[in-house]
Design brief:
44 residues, mainly alpha, 1 helix, rod-shaped, transmembrane, transmembrane helix, chloroplast, PSII_PsbM, plastid
């Protein structure tokens, strides 16, 4: 039973990491695009 619990914990951690990546990567991408757009608008 203890071993099964360990496997479940590992899967949960991997799932949380994957979810975090799916949230962080697009957010960072949008932030970079926004900063570039805002910067170019200020320059122009």
């Amino acid at each position: 039973m203890g071993h099964h619990l360990e496997i479940t914990m590992e899967v949960n951690i991997l799932g949380l990491m994957a979810t975090a990546l799916f949230i962080i990567i697009p957010t960072a991408f949008l932030l970079i695009l926004y900063v570039k757009t805002a910067g170019s608008e200020e320059a122009a």
